[in-house]
């Protein structure tokens, strides 16, 4: 499905990355790494990305997952034209299931532990997660709205070779933040709805395709949105290429599968997967696998 760059692919998706500060080594602020680590950043360098997105998924980016970025705090890391982790040590991390844009506190069920439970070390701190959303107004002008979410129990824990991991319980949304009204979506067509029903409620294995502009992307986004709400983490959203994955808030199929470039034998890949607890867990917990741009997946990979 061809993508249109002016679209904000994250708008239907309620999962975000957030940035946290890291002190410059030669800065006066570097009195306490822990305290500075949690210092509130100025809003103009907050960035957010799609769930599961890695630096490798972005154009002109280094091929390193975001969770590695924290180890590179002294370097400029250009993610895309307007998205930079600068050399003042800003890092990006993912926060999942942060629901934005309403003035009511999230229900109990929306409080989520955002990372693995096997924490090595915890710090109880508060941080304000800021969310900026660019909206196209009726006059075609891009307006920016900002929402804050307060969290506590932020934990930054060492995570072996992967640098650090961040955990947070979302407490409540900032009730003073302006409400971002959901874009008015057109209803699905009869054909789109038929597929939607089969996938979401009929739980059928399904392949759908169509010519350019027939509404595949709109349908897929609707399916992902509903299924994520209904089934949460058991849905894996993937695509054959990083850029395609970016547009639907997923990861590459290779990244999901944990098989690197996918060029080894099946046996070697199985061993590779079994060797990684995280990958094994992902395979085990995934009940629905969504693959966009699936025709680009090599035949051998679809065994
Ligand atoms: N149910 C619908 N009602 C109104 N407009 C729709 C509907 N579905 C899709 N559209 C519009 O049709 C256009 C094409 O849709 P979409 O981008 O989903 O097609 P596509 O099949 O993914 O195209 P491509 O293969 O070129 O990416 C978009 O402008 C979209 O907003």
UniProtKB/TrEMBL annotation:
Keyword Nucleotide-binding in annotation: yes
Please give the InterPro entries that the UniProt record associates with this protein.
DNA_helicase_pif1-like_DEAD (IPR010285), P-loop_NTPase (IPR027417), PIF1_helicase (IPR051055)
Cite the entry's keywords alphabetically. ATP-binding, DNA damage, DNA recombination, DNA repair, Helicase, Hydrolase, Nucleotide-binding
Specify one Pfam family. PIF1
Q: What cofactor does this protein call for?
A: Mg(2+)
On whether Hydrolase is a keyword of this UniProt record, the answer is yes
SUPFAM superfamilies tied to this protein: P-loop containing nucleoside triphosphate hydrolases
Q: Where is the DNA helicase Pif1-like DEAD-box helicase domain?
A: 188-294
EC identifiers of the protein? 5.6.2.3
Family, as annotated: Belongs to the helicase family.
Name by which UniProt lists this protein: ATP-dependent DNA helicase
Upper taxonomic lineage: Eukaryota, Fungi, Fungi incertae sedis, Mucoromycota, Mucoromycotina
